[in-house]
Each structure stands twice: as C-alpha cells, then as structure tokens.
Amino acid sequence: MPRAKPSPMQRLLWLPMILLAGCAVNPVTGKNELMLLDEPVAGMSDAETEQTAILLEEISKDRSLVVVEHDMEFVRNLDCVVSVLHEGSVIAEGAMDSIQSDPRVIEVYLGR
Q1: Are 8 and 57 in the same domain?
Q2: Domain check: are 89 and 70 in the same one?
Q3: Higher pLDDT, 12 or 36
Q4: Sign of the CA dihedral running 105, 110, 111, 112
Q5: pLDDT of residue 4
Q6: DSSP letter at 5?
C-alpha cells in the first residue's frame, strides 16, 4: 500500500526535526553542517512558503544548504547562489538574474 504524501505543514515541521537529528554531522566539530532539501515548498501556500524561506535563511547562517526547487520565486527570495544542472552537469551558476538570462538555461529549460 502506498504511503500518503506528507502535508505541507508536516514538511515544514520536518526541518527542525532534521536539525535535531544531527544529519551530516562533522566528526571534528560535532555540528550538523549540511542540509539537503528536495522541493521543500511543493504544495505549500504562499504563507507557508514565506515561513519556510525565513526558516531556511536562519538555518543557513551556520550550515550549508542544498535546495532542489522548481519554484523560482522562492529561490529568488532566498537570495543565494543558484546552480542549474542538466543531465548531471552544472550548466550555469550565479545570481538568479544571471541564471534566468543565461542562454544555456533558456535553451535547456524553455526550449528556445
């Protein structure tokens, strides 16, 4: 029997649980230094998405985040370095404005 998908609010509650679990702990510092998130705001309301962005900004102050996300407005609001991958390779990296105008990104993702 397939498992039910978690609600957006359940996903938002997972972030503190991940932090407490100590995933990707550096053996030297004992700190959780890396967090990987796959589509953390999928299905969330605008308010939930905004809360998640605020939480991730706070979390990113003392650890690295890798966020896989297709909500470009959410990514823009994070104000971070964006890496675009295609077929396993980075095809562009930089600020969101430069990414959105990059000819390779446009070709691959918009088909122009």
Answers
A1: yes
A2: no
A3: 36
A4: negative
A5: 63
A6: P
Q: What is the pTM of this model?
A: 0.69
Q: How many domains does the chain have?
A: 2
Q: Which two tokens stand for residue 9?
A: 């609010």
- What is the distance between the alpha carbons of residues 21 and 33, in angstroms, rounded to a whole number? 12
C-alpha radius of gyration, the chain, whole number: 16
Judgement on whether residues 57 and 103 belong to the same structural domain of the protein: no
Range of the domain at 46: 1-79
For 99, other C-beta atoms within 10 Å of its C-beta total 21
Residue 67 to residues 1, 38, 83, 84, 112, Cα–Cα distance (Å): 29, 6, 10, 11, 26
Which tens digit of pLDDT belongs to each residue from 2-24?
666 666 666 666 666 565 555 55
Amino acid at 10: Q
